[in-house]
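Honest question from a wet-lab person: if I give you the sequences of every part of a complex, can you actually get the arrangement of the whole thing, not just the pieces? Trying it with mine:
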Amino acid sequence: MNDHDVVGSWRELLARHATTWCVLERELGEKHGLGVSDFEVLDRMAESEHGKYRVQELADEVHLSQSALSRLVSRLEKAGLVCRNMCQEDRRGVFVQITEAGIDRHRQALPTHRAVLGASLND
Amino acid sequence: MNDHDVVGSWRELLARHATTWCVLERELGEKHGLGVSDFEVLDRMAESEHGKYRVQELADEVHLSQSALSRLVSRLEKAGLVCRNMCQEDRRGVFVQITEAGIDRHRQALPTHRAVLGASLND
DNA sequence: ACGCATTCGATGCACAAGCAAATAATGCGT
DNA sequence: ACGCATTATTTGCTTGTGCATCGAATGCGT
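Yes, you can. This is the full assembly:
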């Protein structure tokens, strides 16, 4: 793969990312009061059985720094969508857990999310 | 394409974008004092013949808001890498033009940029 | 020629993100 | 048991971004 092609696919990736992200941000924001990263976090937690996640684990999943995730969790917590639980075995750690309200909000937002992705990623 | 696949490719796109962007940011920043968007703007202007771009035009190219681009241009201008020129025909408008220093900086950063993309986008 | 909607770019403001330092808890070596 | 490096998270600070707004310039309709 030569330089020209590499740059071409990078720009295409950037374009696809930008437009999709932007539409998601608007739709999720207006209809459900969620940012894209908020939704991504809720989405991970709604998928999981136990629903317990460590902060760093979530940060890796959604590609944010751990400090960004700490504040994101604080916002979600203030909104009642998530709660922090002390971790018995290691009291440095925190378990972040989705609440009933969080599950509800996620369920409401899911169709919007899927619809935008479907429209955006199939050109 | 079903929901599951769509979400899968979206997450893959997010991952690829995040890691590539992050490495680019670090490498371009440390070695050349440029952010990724800075480079993208210089890259567009270095490509072009005339080298004259309108602010909104650049904003569209690099997927930033017009206000973000206005400030980005201000930073590049302060660094001496681009300059703003009054636009004769329409005195609301501004032509952004790359300087000699800008062309030099771009030339120096280009190999780094291509190398990172090559490594990152070929897995 | 005049008014008015429109367009271009800059700026005030609020906010999310990263980095580095602070805080707190662990556990390993001795 | 004690000190010290390490790990997990939070917080202070700075910066870049978007949105809304502003000011200036344009041009269209009358």
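Two things worth pointing out. Residues 59 and 69 of chain A are 6 Å apart (CA to CA). Residues 35, 37, 64-65, 67-68, 71-72, 75, 90-93 of chain A lie near DNA strand C (CB under 10 Å from a C1').
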